[in-house]
Amino acid sequence: MSDKIKFEIEFVIQSSPQMLYQYLATPSGLSEWFADNVNSRGEKFTFIWDGAEEDAKLLKRKTDEFVRFAWEEADDDSYFEMKIIVDEITKDVSLFITDFADDDEVEESKMLWTNQVSDLKQVLGSS
Asked: What region holds the START-like domain (predicted)?
């Protein structure tokens, strides 16, 4: 198995941290933009795309700040995290995504996140 590469991307989101967090941490919020459907039972989240299911465990979360998941089939220490950062001076809200991908899939993964976050911005009414 090849080592995955950690990458981070940032998106400016015109939303309150509280509202944004609801779309990152709840099954109903995640199913609005991240997957076709999301179910959860405790720490286990099931993400459904085109009928295919992927299970992830909620590793950590801090209300209105971040959520961190790990895919259950991952046999390494990889995870994906969505963190809300508020600039202290401008009060701009940014969404920082941390994820892992194989060396030859990093750009593709970044593009996928960009598309997903574009959907999130539409749902939030953020440009």
From this structure: 1-125
